[in-house]
Amino acid sequence: MKAVLFLLCAGAWLLLSLGHTISEQHCRVALNQFSDMSFDEIKRKYLWSEPQNCSATKSNYFRGTGPYPTSVDWRKKGNFVSPVKNQGACGSCWTFSTTGALESAVAIASGKMLSLGLMCAPPFHRGLPSQAFEYILYNKGIMGEDTYPYQGKDGHCRFQPQKAIAFVKDVVNITLNDEEAMVEAVALYNPVSFAFEVTEDFISYQSGIYSSTSCHKTPDKVNHAVLAVGYGVQNGVPYWIVKNSWGTAWGQDGYFLIERGKNMCGLAACASFPIPQV
């Protein structure tokens, strides 16, 4: 069955490489660790089993009028972005987005890069990063990866407050669909967590600027959380630089570019970032 599925996926990959599904933007695809899986299996193992609806998330971000730099990449500013990690076959993308954002925020504020333990938040299994930031805030911190290593599966919470090494002072939720506010936040403050809808044409991404006509732009379809670490423009096409949690063998060393300014796949529906307590 796997062999048949692989051949089917290889055929789909050939069509993708010829530009049949992904839009006209410059985006390359390739076989990867998902190529012998059906999209249903990928959704079950690597995405939220049910799409999240972030339309009720209350905004508390007030943006200025700019102007902002034409490009930003926090990876090039210093040691402000932690290494790409691999969530494995677990729908835990939200916790990688959450800890990645907090690791960056702490590093920018204090100059110290931490490696945080993956979230212990039973009320928010497969939840939104904004909810996870709130959980860290009210739960009095988050432990380090050395004392709370990632298991890649659901389990009992073993959080020990006395071992917490990072803390959240406040949570900033960006206004629904205000992508320009996301630009300002990334330019002036730190990387921003966001969720978007992953559709089948995204899975085989290798490089270039991803853009799709098969996804939705509404806040009730998002199924994957990631981290925007910068933005730029390539051949007149604005894009986001995004850190994923599928390991460094996927995409551009674990990152991808996605078209900016069009709320592509709902990416501006529920963006947020933490203000660290340092």
From TrEMBL:
A Pfam family this chain is assigned to: Peptidase_C1
Gene Ontology CC: lysosome
All residue ranges annotated as the Peptidase C1A papain C-terminal domain in the record: 68-275
Keywords linked to the UniProt accession: Disulfide bond, Hydrolase, Lysosome, Protease, Signal, Thiol protease
Compartments, record wording: Lysosome
A biological process from GO: proteolysis
Gene3D superfamilies documented for this protein: Cysteine proteinases
Annotated GO MF terms: cysteine-type peptidase activity
Residues in the signal sequence: 1-19
Family, similarity comment: Belongs to the peptidase C1 family.
Name assigned to this protein: Cathepsin H
Organism the protein comes from: Cavia porcellus (Guinea pig)
